[in-house]
Amino acid sequence: MDLVDVLLRIDYVFLLAAALRAATPIAFAALGGIFSERAGVINIGLEGMMLISAYVCYRVAVLAASPAVGLVAGMAAAMVLAGLHGLFSIRYQTNQVVSGTVVNIFAAGITGFLFRALGAQESAPYLPNISHPLLKSIPVIGTLLFDQPLLMWVMLIVVVVATVVLFRTPWGLRTRAVGELPRAADTAGIPVNRMRYLNVLISGALAGLGGAFFTLHTVSTFTPLMTSGQGFIGLAAMIFGNWTPIPAFLATLLFTLPQALAGQLQMFGVPLPYQLLSTLPYLLTIITLAGVVRRSTPPAALGTPYVK
Amino acid sequence: MTEEEKGEQFAMKQPLYIPTLATAVAILLAACAAPAQPVQQAAPAQQKPKIKVGLVTDVGSLDDRSFNASAWEGVQRAVRDFGVEAKAIESKQPTDYIKNIQTFVNEGYDLIITVGFLMGDDTRKAAEMYPNQKFAIVDVGYFDENAPKNVMGLLFAEDQSGFLAGVVAGMMTKSNVVGGVYGLAIPPVCRFRKGYEAGVRFVNSNARILGVYQGPSDGTPFNNPQWGAARARDQMNEGADVIFSAGGTTGNGGLEEIAKTQGVLGIGVDQDQYFTLSDNVKKILLTSAMKRVDQSTYLAVKSVVEGDFKGGNRVFDITNDGIGLAPFHDLDSQVSNDVRNKVQEVIEGLKNGSIKTGLEGVADPCAN
Amino acid sequence: MSSVTAQGQSRSAAPFSWQRVWSGVWPAVASVVLALVIAGAVITITGADPVAAYRALVEGALLREGTATRPTAFLETLVSATPYLVLALGISLGFAAGLFNIGAEGQLYMGALASVVVGFALSGLPWIVHLPLALVAGVLAGALWAGIAGWLKAARGAPEVVVTIMLNYIAYAVVNYMVNGPIRHTGTAPRTPDIQASAVLPTLLPAPERIHWGFVLAIACAVGYYFLLYRSALGLRIRLVGANREAARYAGINVNSTYLITMVISGGLCGMAGAIEVLALYRYLPTEFTTGYGFESIAVALLGQGHPVGVALAALLFGALANGAGYMQFSSGVSNYIIAVMQAFIIVFVAAPGIVRDLFRWARPKRAEVEVE
Amino acid sequence: MTRPDVVLEMRGITKRFPGVLANDHINLDLRKGEVHALLGENGAGKSTLMNILYGLYQPDAGEIWLDGRRVTIHSPRDAIALGIGMVHQHFMLVPTLTVTENIILGLETRRGLLLDEATPQQRIRQISRDFGLEIDPEAYVKDLPVGVQQRVEIVKALYRNARVLVLDEPTAVLTPLEVESLFSTLRALVKRGVSVIFISHKLKEVKAIADRITVLRQGRVVGSTTPAEAGEAQLASMMVGRPVILKVDKSPAQPGPVVLSVRDVKAMSDRRAMALQGVSFDVRAGEIVGIAGVEGNGQTELVEVITGLRQPLAGQVLLCGQPLPAWSPRAAIDRGMSHIPEDRYKYGIVAAYSLAINLVLSVFHRPPFSRNGLLQRRAILSNAERLVEEFDIRAPHAEVPIGKLSGGNQQKAVVAREFSRPMKLLVAAQPTRGVDVGSIEFIHKRIVQARDAGAAVLLVSAELDEIMALSDRILVMFGGRIVGERDGRTARREDIGLLMMGKV
Question: Angle, to 10 degrees, between the axis of helix B225-237 and the axis of helix A245-267?
Fold first, then answer.
């Protein structure tokens, strides 16, 4: 089929809906990154936090026969890793990239090891979709929003809430101050390191939500390394979105839309090598980055431990 | 972190770490200053030496729910049936293959099974180096005149298996659209796909056939369930109501997605996935296009046990139950007799050669 | 390191003392022991015997008494360590300039692709020409691939972290496409034709030993890295940009071109790693090329703290763990995922010695000295 | 024991840092409604003492009494609660936040869960009015000139109901007029019962504003006095420990040919505002041209354009008649330009690297420091040894990380580096900022020597005293333009001060 024909007949609303769904874990990772890095702590361990959450969500959801319990446990597990990341990088002032890398390696190792030792044959109960028979039939909106995974909704809400929290609440004000000029925050009586710990924990909780998407929405079981590098894509979206929730979320779409499109083009048999088609999201990201003249500016104190 | 800090941390800290690291390495060395006992526990001298079987996976792991797992399962069945001893080593890098094979050679294993076409070259090299060592390799055959005599090539007519699945799909579809979600385009996957599509066309010449291969940059190969799920959804949106999922956990993601939708059926691959996938999938799993890797490794071990191991290629196809369709299980009642009869007819046809999948003798099934 | 007084007399940093040595060494001892204990606990929980597992790991990595054809497994550890070393040097160089090259994996792929193409497509050349040509092709391809990120960083301010991640994925696709299409050889498996014998990077010892000249090249890279970074003007320039970009700019250093040069050299090293792997071990390019060396090498680079000796030791450690893992699984049935758990803890303890100190302090009965916050 | 009018008393405060006794049994008392000046050189221990008071450091020994009660101050939070406010030398304002956000940070009012900015803004406006501290609560701090930022800092302290206000080197960044208005603010504060600790090393100002003066030197109290009792010379010798020559000794300039010629240069700032609106002037060999002006009026951009660090939008910079290629610091260096950058720590040194390396920062790629691309360690070290000697840099050895040296020695290293090249033009931006008196004297002397040796010198400084003392000609910048020129010998402070405010 001809490229133009295909482009004309693609169901773009469906495409956008698919992209929104696919964006869910990536956006959670990006949001998690934003909280941590806005407070001044680099977090490249998001991938590992998502992975461990995916595993724990699965295992606990099966044991408890409840996806909600699984979700909470998964988030808790990711927060434990986040807490360790905080401990290493705040208390012990380890290079934060090292600490994040350790989180990734550890999560890959421990989940793989436990999976091998305990197996993953049972199927975990899913979290519900937000689906409403009536609302679902509204054109466009229905497809986009009213037959979608619960966590996608949570993600959209978190995007909005995170924006409000970061820019309209005392918490956000303090977080940004701590990440920009911790000494100023300290002299204003804000406990810098406590703020950092808490934001890193929030980061873990959000990564945990992202990890839950894999085992409690997409497939009801766990496989090693199933997060497939999406935490890193999330980091890219965070940088692309200049450490700000809504732009970061849009950046994830910039990524998942072409991926969904590439899938469709291949499905419709467009005569392009599918291997190269699948590079579409990555190419577009690079081109956009190269075209955007504005340099992204990380929080000024990012990566610097606060020592009095 | 700002660029300054990155650099500074590097500039300031380094000298301290070198002794630290050096000790770390030294400790590993010293840990075995304790007498390195020859590893006897692996082969306790019993009344009569057990037959030992070693399995080396490709870079997929033993729990890939695909051919590595299946191969290992056959070996374990042989352990139960014949009391042989078996061990497996998973390869982390393709460069590990030869090393892991070597480990089994050194330990005096009777049969070394390697899994996957990626290991074809290294297995051959090892076989040539150790002409008295018995090997079996899944998914690879050696056809030239110099083919090693000590390797049993375990080949599968995936196209026939796919063809049968295609027949079922082509007849069961109500929308007249069938789909397929495939892993990376490697030869076994391509043969499944092309056989499947030929099978659909064989019974339903005007059905629309959709299909996508996972691209090399679409996340981890054979292990991106989310991608698989998204593609299955694409196809359901295009009206597909039977979808063949052949691509490790990527494909399994497709099946899980199908299970969330009413009225769409899925077809599994390699094993009877009714027994390997989650309960959710059971209710929509129409059948599986089986490739009895387990059977092939089982038989390879058996031949060693019974002393009639022979090198050369062994094709597992419809004639020797090496491939086939899995039972319909939960969906048995929905499958009409027409379908059953047709499947039977096609099986006969494939057996006696009156029906061709079109991939017979094709060296590169992935070429267009 | 020696230091020099204002009067110009050289003197060593401090007088030698065993206490000093011990204080430098004990955290390492404690780190490794702790990492082993923790991973051992995990192994034990799942019902396996950690002692047997570790013995197998060490034997597999280093000392295994072999058959006549296989004197020691240590040589294989060196084979495994080679790509880690070269890649980690490349990544470290980026760190020195304040650049985070997550794209080592992609540069490795492109390097392998280019050197294989040169390796099989040219024939009739003497090895003295062909082999260097193939190596150089790999280096150039890696350099070019990283150069894209470097150029975008220098010219457009595009963050190299994002660009290199994206370039990784594109590299996978390009290699896969090429191997499945334009340069596929005519066998059953999708792979390139074998490279010519004249392009093979030969082994150092007779078969079946695989230790090859690539290892020597890797050591040479480490030495070269040392001279480049610590002894050359360019290296100082790179380090200054990493240490204080603004001050470097004020001192007349062109920061953007330094970024570009650093990325190019970094990518060249990563490309070299790919070239070595294919020219010495594979001798063709398979569809599924190495998995994850580029990412693990980030950890190697971090563990090595940017110094070539540190990187070499870290590469050796990772090579040993990777090499021993197979035998450990064979001998004790413990899956090699545990290696990652051990790696994680070793890195943590080496990177943050304070943790080890605190753990031991807590372990001691008297808590009076524990600092109050 | 405590007199009723004493608000704050610090007794026997001792603080030790590795290798330094920063505070050695310091006693200090502050009466209600007074301005108590703490006078001392850089490194005398003033800031340490105040950081202890503010809870940023814990003293190793000593007590703090507030209103007759002994208090322990663990953190700034405690200090704020006790009514202590502090305006730090480096402003503790987050540039990316607004004035209001900075002021309410840590003390936010809420409306529901959200931040309430309206209520605090009212109070901020009220405080501004009460004390004549004009600020825009909605502006972003990064867009404000330093003088205004300082007002924000004071408002921030008042917003927290500070009864004791500590000002650390508050006049360093102000014009004479701004200093006057700061002083009147302080007088207003004092009148309302606020007690002020005024930290400074500037004798004139201390004399002008203080009720009492305590002088610190090397971590100890040297003595306490009042402005009436002690003259400037006496205070200076208390502070430095020896008599200080307050005048720079220099002969009249003998200007030669034009070395630097700036022609109608226009340039943008980092924030994309027009920072230079067409600047033209010449600097001749053998003269020092001082650029006076409040910081943020384009001096930074001007220096950057001249030194090749910033691309001008229009105009030209000629060095000895030859246009400099735009945007190439290296070309400028190669053609005989030396540059002492305004922010030493950010632009002048690489703190983690050795003194020796920092002394060849701009020439290490050339012989003799580098041959065939390889660094020549010996040459680098002997260069360092020579410069250490010549410029009296106090360092344990040449390979000590320069970040470990004192500010004065760091700055001397920068000067040494820049003076060690053949020099046609010296661009010196804030050459003595954050430097002790001894070093200031030394650096001033070297600058004059450079002039006398025939170099053209462009001096940019926010310290009017420095400009007045050194310059042969004074140019005043305001709003990206040169708004006036005066002869260095005849210029008057008041006149220049007016020009700096743009009042021509």
Answer: 60
